[in-house]
Amino acid sequence: MDLTVKDSRINWKVTVIVPTLDEEETIAEVLEQVKPYADELIVIDGKSEDRTKLIANEAGVKVVTDNGMGKGSAIRLGLQIASNPIVVFIDADGSHEASDIPKLLAPIRQNQADIVIGSRMTGGSDELFYDAAELIRLTGSMLINLTINYRWNVRLSDTQNGYRAVVRDAGLALNMVENSTTIEQEMVMKALTCGYRVANVPSHEYRRKGGKSKVIVSKVWVKYLLNVIRHLVRQT
Amino acid sequence: MNILILNPPQRDNIIMVKEGRCMQRKGAWGYIMSPITIVTMGTLLRNNGHIVTIKDCPASGTSFSEMLASIALIAPDIVYINTSTPTIDDDIYAAKCIKKQNNHSAIIVLFGIHPSCQYPTLLTENCVDFCIIGEPEYTALDLAASIKLKSNLNSVAGIAFLDNSEKLVVTTAREPIINMDNLPMPDWSFIDTGNYRLPLNNEKFLLVNTNRGCPYRCTFCNAYVYYGRTPRRRSVATIIQELKNNVELFGITNFMFWAEEFILDKKFVLELCHAIINAGLSIKWVCNSRVDAVDPETMTAIRRAGCWNIAFGIESGNQSILNMINKKITLDQIRHAVSIAKNAGLQVTGHVIIGFPNETRETISNTEQFVKSLALDFVQYYCAIPYPGTQLYTDAINNNWLTTTDWRQFEHNISVLNYPQIKAKEIMKIRRQLMLKWYLSPKKVINTLINNISQPSDLFAFISKIPGFLRWI
Ligand SMILES: Nc1nc2c(ncn2[C@@H]2O[C@H](COP(=O)(O)OP(=O)(O)OP(=O)(O)O)[C@@H](O)[C@H]2O)c(=O)[nH]1
Ligand code: SF4
Ligand SMILES: [Mg+2]
Fold first, then answer.
1. What is the DSSP annotation of B346-368?
2. What is the pLDDT of residues B280-300, one digit of tens each?
3. pTM of this prediction?
């Protein structure tokens, strides 16, 4: 029986999880850039039909296939198979700046946060007001932020960004169920309900550097809205 | 032998629960636990040819004089008295009265954690013939046999007594019951099961002993005195059989799995849950666990098998206090455990203690903030009690922290520890405030109602508990 208390957070190692779905144009570069920051690096692929997996394999990176239900299943699987106490999620489309990883880790290692999300609001985004769809998407996510801030009495500027560092045990404790990208906000809302500390750090969002977006605003907004409402009425 | 196993009433009519390390006023929510130790002991003695009567006076509302009158009729050869630290004065008083009225013919034996530690003093009371040290069932059986056969008492392991020259004799230590399946299943027909009901919905419930023994050494805990530090458990088949009996013979489907820490052996817990489901048992139960034993798989399994509430020893919201009391858990582990249990669909109870050594207003405030941030459904705040047998007791004596030697004050709502930096009075005051703050928050009240009340009669039962609850607080 293990009677010892776990060691301090300062020494916690990092697993970086890169969820992919048909990202052959950008995956090699992303993996290259992320490597120096990762004690463990895993690509979790949602049944890509292009050369994504092949490229990742060639780069010597471990590739695991999820159940293909969406990005949410990749996140959940990532938390389960990561072997380090901190898990960083970063997109495979080149939207995120790998050198921001230390910024995401610092609040966790200093025991000031359990989930740290890169904020596009304070870090800037190439996509702000780029087109009508982007405007709607931005407005929607701002509204969700406001709602979350009000309900849980926090001041978060970005709750939707997939670029985040998570204390693995905290992530697992949330018993997340969302299969799609709604998992990002599910994670935030459940974490706040459980009293986990969620923080933002500025991180710049680049426009996707290749490939196609998997999130089509006109198709998903209802799902996002219903998901928020469900968590608002949930008992603590 | 004609044997009486007795849980005496308190003279001031306070109802105390005495079940091993659990020594407290009738729970905060006004429930009395079914007395599993005395019933198991009674079953064991009866199965071995003795005539056994069990009296759980606090639960049946039997007064002191009623108790004495019925004991006069029973005229027992041996009376085993269940004791605890805060009730010991009343327990001794009962012993005295019984001795007197039965013409000193009844042999009085005390058992419980308190006499296991305090036997030298207790035996000087001339109404006490024996103290059982540690796990009581088989010692009680061996002692009864020895008394009957008038054989050498020195050969009964686990007892203390004064010999003919008034010299203290402590026999060899009793070995813990290794094969717990040897213990009989408690025959609840000894008592009126209608006296033991759940707080919120008023349904009958029974304790079921799953395992005993805890390897940890928390400085405030006296559990090891009774059950030692080696975890032992009953077989899954035996527990399932007992659950079936309870359902079929007594029509009871609510249970509390009774153990120092239910989840010490994850494999066992998963097997048990599996077996409950396979047996088609439709039961509801509660259990407890250390937070570091919690994982999503186990929580999901217990939820599926009918567990609806799990209790954690959170103790403190300050890491250095947790370290000092040797609890061997971290604040992170507490938060993870509560979250996992909550997200698995369980209600979660947190047991929190204030008034440990080194405690300051600030560390108590850390605890309050931390507890508030957890997704808990129920919280009980206690004052740290230096029960005999604990490290805390030794430290309290050595540092002169004790405010009193009156055992009646050794109960959870009262602090008997004065430290240089914070006094007992203030600790008590803060405890009460914390309880009130928690339960009078409108959100908590509404959530409790929504989660626990499913029909009008539940609401009635709930309302009827409120005065008791306020008195407890
Ligand atoms: N494993 C897996 N990964 C996915 C799935 N859908 C998206 N991803 C990955 O998740 C990350 C985010 O997806 P994106 O399509 O970039 O979503 P977004 O960043 O919100 O939108 P844009 O960058 O504007 O296209 C990318 O690395 C995708 O490859 C999926 O179903 N399974
Ligand atoms: S973990 Fe600590 S408090 Fe719980 S039974 Fe073991 S020693 Fe006692
Ligand atoms: Mg993207």
1. -EEEEEEEE--TT--HHHHHHHH
2. 999 999 999 999 999 999 999
3. 0.92
Residue burial B40-61, b: 16+ Cβ < 10 Å; e: rest: bbbbbbbeeebebbbbbbbbbe
| Distance between CA atoms of residues B34 and B23, nearest Å | 13
Q: Is A55 in the pocket of ligand 1 (CB under 6 A)?
A: no
Residues 6+ apart with CB under 8 A from B287: B210, B256, B257, B259, B262, B263, B302, B307, B310, B311
Compute the distance between CA of residue A191 and CA of residue A167 in angstroms, rounded to an integer: 11
Residue A1 in domain: no
For ligand 2, atom 2: residue with the closest CA: B218
Q: Quote the number of domains for chain A.
A: 1
How far apart CA B32 and CA B196 sit, in angstroms, is: 6
Q: Which residue of chain A has the CA closest to B369?
A: A195
Answer yes or no: is A164 within a domain: yes
Q: Which atom of ligand 1 is nearest to the CA of A45?
A: 1
Which residues constitute the domain of residue A73?
8-234
Identify residues whose C-beta is under 5 A from ligand 3, the ion.
A 91, 93, 95, 208
Taking CA–CA distances from B446, the nearest residue in chain A reads A235
C-alpha atoms less than 13 angstroms from C-alpha of B371 in its C-beta half-sphere: 28
Least confident interval from A88-97, B99-108, B266-275: B99-108
In chain B, residues with a C-beta closer than 8 Å to the C-beta of A236 are 375, 443, 447
What does the alpha-carbon distance between residue B332 and residue A168 come to, in Å, rounded to a whole number? Answer: 11
Q: Is B454 exposed, middle or buried (CB count within 10 Å of its CB: 0-12, 13-18, 19+)?
A: exposed
Domains of chain B (ranges plus CATH)?
A: 2-170 (3.40.50.280), 197-472 (3.80.30.20)
- Within 10 Å of residue A192's Cβ, how many Cβ atoms? 23
> Tell me, what DSSP letter sits at residue B266?
H
**Is residue A3 in a domain?**
no
- Structural contact between residues B141 and B120, judged by C-beta atoms closer than 8 angstroms: no
* C-alpha span between A121 and A225 (Å, rounded): 21
Residues within 6 Å of ligand 2 by CB: B 214, 216-218, 221, 223, 260-261, 290, 313
For the domain that residue A142 is a member of, what is the CATH number? Answer: 3.90.550.10
The average pLDDT across B468-473 equals: 64
A213 CB under 6 A from ligand 1?
Answer: yes
- Helix, strand, coil percent values for chain B (each to nearest 5): 45, 20, 40
